[in-house]
Amino acid sequence: MLKIIAIGKNAQFLKDAENEYVSRINQFTKIEVLELKEDKSKTPKEVMKKEAEKIKSALKGADYIALDVWSENVSTEQFTKILKDNKDMVFVIGGAFGLDETIKNTAKKRISLSKMTFTHQIARVLLLEQIYRAQTILNNRNYHK
Predict the structure, then answer these.
(1) What digits encode the pLDDT tens for the residues 52-65?
(2) Could you report the per-residue pLDDT of 24-80, keeping only the tens digit for each?
(3) What pLDDT, on the 0 to 100 scale, is given for residue 144?
(4) What residues contact 112, with CB distance under 8 A and at least 6 apart?
(5) Half-sphere exposure of 85 toward its Cβ, with a 13 Å CA cutoff?
(6) Which terminus of the chain has a lower count of CB atoms within 10 Å, N or C?
(7) SS3 category, 116
(8) Which of 45, 86, 96, 81 is nearest to 65 (CA)?
(9) DSSP secondary-structure letter at 67?
């Protein structure tokens, strides 16, 4: 089973895309998206610290991959291998200020979806699209070109 733990809610147009990919992925493997409430503290450091506590509680000790713009960029093929080698995996997407160091430092792996910076809401849809693409590759379906 795959799981995405993400800070914040998506706008409806992104939620529609998210739901479409979740439906497609569920043809191959179960996936769950858990949205955690964004923190409204005064400083980015406080926000990330409080969001980290919510993430830790949701993880319940599970291994996870942290999405971090400053980490290793992976190709679709590399990402597919990660999914192949880790059937049960949790992905963590931080909020507007990213992930607290305590979350990044305890991740099994840290990856970046691109050298470009995206909002955390768009990153969720991009991650879901890549999970779907990887599943089609692993199941010999004609989607990835």
Answers:
(1) 999 999 999 899 99
(2) 999 999 999 999 999 999 999 999 999 999 999 999 989 999 999 899 899 999 999
(3) 62
(4) 67, 68, 69, 70, 71, 72, 73, 74
(5) 10
(6) C
(7) coil
(8) 86
(9) E
Question: Predicted confidence band at 86 (pLDDT cuts at 50, 70, 90)?
Answer: confident
Copy the structure tokens of residue 67: 């999405």
Res 25: pLDDT: 97
Positive or negative, the CA dihedral 80, 86, 90, 94 is negative
CATH for 2-138, options being 3.40.1280.10, 2.40.50.100, 3.90.1150.10, 1.10.10.60: 3.40.1280.10
Structure tokens at 121: 């809401």
Supply 88's token pair. Answer: 């049960």
Provide the 10 A C-beta neighbour count for residue 22: 18
Q: Rg of the chain over CA atoms, in angstroms?
A: 15
- As given in the structure block, the two tokens for residue 20 are 């479409």
One-letter amino acid of 101: E
**Number of residues in the chain:** 145
Q: Say what percent of the chain tops pLDDT 90.
A: 88
First-residue to last-residue Cα distance in the chain: 25
